[in-house]
Design a protein that fits this description.
alpha/beta; about 375 residues
Length: about 375
C-alpha cells in the first residue's frame, strides 16, 4: 500500500507509535527502540514500546495491554515484527495469536533473520499487512539498528558547538562555554537518547567532564561513556573514573598500554578494552567493531577537534549536530575541526541539511549523510 492510500487516522496512530518508540531511545540497545499501538474501532486499546535492555519488545507489551480487545483490531508498529527466536519468542507469533486483523508497519526490518519474513508470516495467517507509513521517520529513529545491520557499525552522530568564528575552545585548549541553556538542554536530551557518548583522552583531561544527562528525572538515562585512550592516560581521579561504578565507563586502549594503568582504572570500575592502533592513535574501524560487539548502535561523538576530524576523515559520520553560538572566541582559539575547514560539513556533498532550529541565541543545524 502506498502512503497516499493511508487514512488520516492511520497517520495519527502511526505518529503515536513513533513517539512511543522514541521513549526507548538510548535504553534498549542492542535492540531497536520500537513503538506499537493497538486500535479497535478507532479507539486506542493498547500501547507499548521496547523496554529497557531490549525486552520485552513493543508488540507483546501493547498486545498484553489490549487483552481480548486485540481481536479484530489494527496494530501500528514502527518496525516489522520479528519472526525469529532470539531471547524472546517471535513477535509475529504473538500478533497472530492475539487475533489482530491488520498490521500497519512503518518499515521492513533489514535484519536478515527477519527481512520480510515477519510480514510474510502475518499474511500467511490471513492478517492484512500494509507497509510504508511513516517510513522516513522510522528509518531515522531506527538508524542505529539499520546501520549495525547494513554497515556493521554503530550509527555515528557528531556533535559540535562552535563560536561565530568557528572555534570550539580558547587558546591553550582551554574550554569555553559557548551555548546557552536551551541548547544545553537539547544536548542533554540527545545524550539520553543515545547508547554511548565518545570523547578522546585529551578532552577528558582538559575538560574533566561527566558526560551524563542532567535533565531532571532523566539522570538514570545517561549513556555509556567511552574514552579513546591509547596509552591509558586518563587520571584515576577524574570525574569520569570516579563515577564509573554509577555510570558505565569504557576506556579503549591499544594492546601496548601498560597493565598497571589498566588495573588502576579497572579498580575504579572502568571497563578496559584493547583495540588495535599505533602511537598515532586507535584504529577507528577497530573501535567501531568493538562498540558494535558490545551492543552499541547509536554513538554520539562529542569531543574534541582531533576526534571530530578523525571520524570525518574515516567517513564514519552519519549525522552532524552543529550548534552555532553568536559568541566570538578569537583567531587564537581552537578550530572546530583539526586540520579541516568547517565547510567539510557545511558545504560538502557528503551531507545535507535535515533540520534547523533556533535555541535561544544559538542555532542548531542537523546534517545527515547523503
Amino acid at each position: 500500500m502506498s502512503s497516499a492510500n493511508f487514512s488520516s487516522d492511520d497517520r495519527r496512530f502511526m505518529q503515536l507509535a513513533l513517539a512511543l518508540g522514541r521513549r526507548g531511545l538510548g535504553n534498549t540497545w542492542p535492540n531497536p527502540a520500537v513503538g506499537a499501538v493497538v486500535v479497535k474501532d478507532g479507539v486506542i486499546v493498547g500501547r507499548g514500546w521496547t523496554q529497557p535492555g531490549g525486552r520485552p519488545h513493543a508488540e507483546p507489551v501493547a498486545l498484553q495491554r489490549a487483552g481480548e480487545l486485540a481481536k479484530g483490531a489494527t496494530l501500528y508498529v514502527t518496525l516489522e515484527p520479528c519472526s525469529h527466536f532470539g531471547k524472546s519468542p517471535p513477535c509475529a507469533d504473538a500478533v497472530i495469536a492475539s487475533g489482530i486483523s491488520r498490521v500497519v508497519a512503518a518499515i521492513e526490518d533489514p535484519n536478515p533473520e527477519v527481512a520480510g519474513q515477519g510480514h510474510a508470516r502475518l499474511r500467511a495467517a490471513g492478517i492484512k499487512v500494509d507497509v510504508g507509513l511513516g517510513a522516513e521517520e522510522a528509518a531515522h529513529d531506527h538508524a542505529g539498528h539499520i546501520r549495525r545491520i547494513v554497515s556493521r557499525r554503530p550509527h555515528v552522530t557528531l556533535k559540535l558547538a562552535v563560536s561565530s568564528d568557528g572555534k570550539v575552545g580558547a587558546a591553550g585548549r582551554k574550554p569555553v562555554a559557548l551555548t546557552e541553556a536551551a541548547a544545553n538542554t537539547r544536548v542533554h536530551l540527545m545524550r539520553a537518547q543515545t547508547d554511548a557518548i565518545l570523547i578522546g583522552v585529551g578532552t577528558a583531561k582538559s575538560d574533566d567532564p561527566m558526560l551524563t544527562c542532567r535533565l531532571p528525572g532523566m539522570e538514570k538515562q545517561s549513556p555509556v561513556r567511552v574514552v579513546l585512550d591509547s596509552h591509558l592516560r586518563l587520571p584515576p581521579g577524574s570525574r569520569l573514573a570516579k563515577s564509573a561504578r554509577q555510570i558505565p565507563l569504557w576506556v579503549l586502549a591499544n594492546a601496548s598500554a601498560e597493565a598497571p594503568a589498566a588495573a588502576v582504572l579497572g579498580a575504579e570500575g572502568a571497563v578496559i578494552a584493547r583495540v588495535s592502533g599505533s602511537n598515532a592513535g586507535l584504529d577507528l574501524a577497530a573501535v567501531m567493531k568493538e562498540l558494535m560487539a558490545r551492543g552499541i548502535s547509536r554513538l554520539m561523538v562529542e569531543g574534541g577537534s582531533k576526534i571530530a576530524s578523525a571520524f570525518l576523515k574515516a567517513d564514519l559520520v552519519d549525522e552532524v549536530w552543529l550548534l552555532q553560538s553568536p559568541k566570538l572566541v578569537g583567531s587564537d582559539g581552537i578550530d572546530a575541526l583539526d586540520g579541516m575547514a568547517l565547510t567539510t560539513i557545511t558545504a560538502s556533498p557528503r551531507f545535507r541539511v535535515r533540520a534547523s532550529e533556533t535555541l535561544g541565541p544559538d542555532v542548531l543545524t542537523i546534517y545527515e549523510r547523503t
